[in-house]
Specification:
single chain; alpha+beta; Ribosomal Protein S5, domain 2; 4-stranded mixed sheet; globular; tRNA binding; nuclease; RNA-binding; ribonuclease P activity
Length: 118
């Protein structure tokens, strides 16, 4: 995923948390904030220390990024959004396909992706 597609600064994260709307399932919480005039979506990923050690957290982040890249190839994302994905504890025990399925579910609940995949 290109760096231009990432929410990186603490200021931007806080803006999405404070002004955005959230939806959740058992594995993820998604905060979204509409940004008019933006050419493409931006995403931030947060994986806390409760998930595991640094190796586990980085592995979870890589899997989330990979799932988002695959979904982006299908042009499913609402382009004028900033959104933050927060991983919860069960994610550390999931494989890539389970993570992708759960992400599709929570992103469609929050209307970040335009239609749910089968």
């Amino acid at each position: 995923m290109k760096k231009a597609y990432r929410v990186k600064s603490e200021k931007d994260f806080q803006k999405v948390f404070n002004q955005g709307q959230s939806k959740a399932n058992r594995q993820f919480v998604v905060y979204k904030l509409p940004k008019e005039g933006q050419n493409h979506f931006r995403v931030g990923i947060s994986v806390g220390k409760k998930i595991g050690n640094a190796v586990t957290r980085n592995q979870v982040k890589r899997r989330i990024r990979h799932a988002l890249m695959e979904l982006d190839k299908e042009k499913q994302f609402n382009q004028d959004l900033d959104f933050i994905i927060i991983a919860r504890k069960p994610v550390s025990q999931m494989d890539y396909w389970e993570i992708k399925k759960s992400l599709v579910h929570v992103l469609s609940l929050s209307h970040v992706i335009l239609s749910e995949l089968s």
